[in-house]
Amino acid sequence: MTGITMQLMTQASQHLTLLTGASRGMGLAMAHQLLSQGHTLLCISRSQQDALTQHAEQSSATLLQWTHDLADSATLSARLQTWLDQQDSKAWASVTLINNAGVIPHINPLSEAEANDLARALRVGLEAPMQLSAVFLRATAAWPAERKLLNISSGLGRKAMAAQAAYCAVKAGMDHFTRCVALEEALKAQGAKVCSLAPGVIDTDMQQQLRNAAPSAFPDWENFARLKTGGQLSSPEDAARRVLAYLARPDFGTRPVADVRDQ
What we know:
By secondary structure, the protein is α/β, with parallel strands linked by helices. 46% of the residues lie in helices and 15% in strands. It contains nine helices and seven strands; from the N terminus they run αβαβαβαβαβαβαααβ. Strands 3-2-1-4-5-6-7 form a seven-stranded parallel β-sheet, with helices on both faces. The longest helix has 25 residues. It is globular and about 55 Å long.
């Protein structure tokens, strides 16, 4: 076996993952675990994490951290398109985009919502994933690598909840645009595998925000408080392991909308 052949085999074993919302919660936990698995990782978040940089150095993994507000997804999409176009398409065994970033708007009825708050929730939670997914699918269309698109959804995309119209709408929209993309990719010879995945209930800042809401403005407050006191919340680390295990399943993408608890 020649040195060139060995080099190509080494390159083809590398995995490239793009991850949004990697600065805290489950996103941060996924970033740590992907680095431990040796992935080349591009994180896109509002802030950088020194702990990720240290982890990458210790594990000899490649890490890039882009600081960007996903509410400005048009600028980010153009930057990502340029970056992907510059990559060696034959260097990767797989390339994956994980749309994880999201924000929860103020907890109140839609009649009391502020325009800027609604706009931000929709831009970060739905517009950005759609724009980034479009760039990802277009830029990697001719890559020989296995391609996966994972959208982190929520049970609230499938169940209505008072005082959370924007968040529920964002996740329902994510589920449905994923269904559309799955149909489109299935028509291609080497289409990407796509899935909108609910990760279960996780003990994150978002959960704390819901528990801290005024019960008078949030009819489901008691249910969320009970999840915490009843020990029913997964840790971000455990949730990340389950999501990444689902991503690695051989049947990933056969169901465009799924739950991490699906068997």
